[in-house]
Specification:
glycerol-3-phosphate 2-O-acyltransferase activity, 25% helix, two-stranded parallel sheet, Phospholipid/glycerol acyltransferase domain-containing protein, membrane, alpha+beta, two-stranded antiparallel ribbon, 4 helices, 6 strands, 140 residues, globular
């Protein structure tokens, strides 16, 4: 990334993945696959032994990093993976590219790729869509 930035190239970071404690990777949005002819996947694993920074309550999300850092030895693992073509012969649609990148990252982390979206995960676990709650009575 530093080499690209030093050369004046444009670098776009599209965070995708999961916010759960189990080894599953949520379905990726295909939008990142439409930004460039090639993407460079980076797999990041946050390891926690005691406190998990992955709340499902929108009002408690601000404490996620605090809980993660409360661990006696919080750990991040970073894996830089081979580039994946998003355009050209054999690349497929942006949805196919997103699914391929999801499988590559899941494989590097030892996770299972799922078809669950972030919204579906939050509906299953917390009964909401994962958004920030607003007071709609003030919007009259």
């Amino acid at each position: 990334m530093a080499r690209l930035l030093d050369g004046g190239d444009l670098v776009v970071v599209c965070p995708e993945g999961t916010t759960c404690r189990e080894p599953y990777l949520l379905r990726f949005s295909p939008l990142f696959a439409e930004l460039a002819d090639e993407v460079n996947p980076v797999a990041v694993r946050a390891a926690a032994g005691m406190f998990y920074g992955t709340s499902t309550s929108p009002s408690a999300k601000c404490f996620d990093s605090v809980f993660f850092l409360m661990n006696p030895s919080p750990e991040y693992g970073v894996h830089f993976l081979e580039p994946v073509a998003t355009a050209g012969a054999g690349a497929g649609s942006s949805i196919e590219v997103a699914n391929r990148v999801q499988r590559v990252i899941a494989g590097a982390l030892g996770y299972e790729a799922t078809t669950l979206t972030r919204k579906a995960k939050y509906l299953l676990l917390a009964g909401n869509e994962g958004g920030v709650a607003t007071n709609r009575s003030n919007n009259k």
